[in-house]
Amino acid sequence: MIYLVYSKETASSNIANAMKGILNLEESTFNGFRCFDSKDVKLIEFDGRLIDAEPIDKIVDGIMIFLSRHSSSKGIPAFTVHAEGNWSDDCPIGGKPKSLSVSSPLSMLNFLNSMNAINDTGIELTYEATHHGPLTENPSLFVELGGSEGVIKSEKHAKILATAVADSLHKKPAYEKVAVGIGGLHYSAKFTKLALNGKYAFSHIMSKHYISNLDMLKYAFERSDVRAEFALIEWKSIKAMDREAIVRELNVLGIDYAKV
To answer: pTM of this prediction?
Structure first.
């Protein structure tokens, strides 16, 4: 069973409404939650912020795809996908300190491929580095649209994202290796390009802003439904001293790496 989770926030509910029609879902209930379902998909309404949706994680037994609004401090429109978790003790938007959710690298890659195939909007499609809650034990991912109020409120853009999600649900993506991404900015343009070219599926991505938390790298490899085989480091984005620290930590963990 695949679980799609949405909230009453505008972008999230618009995506969910489009999903109901695309997948021919019928209204029901699931453990007290309003639900729309078919034979192998349940679309669950969470009455709260999706970053606080741990109660859903406790009642499901499969992959969760959170249909979400994307926020941008600069108001830049984007379609995004990412795993959840907090690399540091600072966790202002859900989850728990220094804790990563179980990621689903192949599901994230499936969404990227499906979205890339139909995205004729001119809006950027990108991985985001792992961030925010909820903290999940079931494999999970966030797919998002937004950045600007126009996109956040757009039913057209919501339907495009919903179409990509529906198309991605039962595919097997082409890729060479599953990797943990290290370095770069929060929006991982380089890792996104490599994924879309069929090279890698990423489980977790640690941006350069969290390099001081290298003790978390072991969890980036452990907390995934398909274990990453090696680390891919965006080499030039990281200071030399920090690169040396990363390599030392990977050697301790017995993890191979490559530079990009």
So the answer is: 0.97
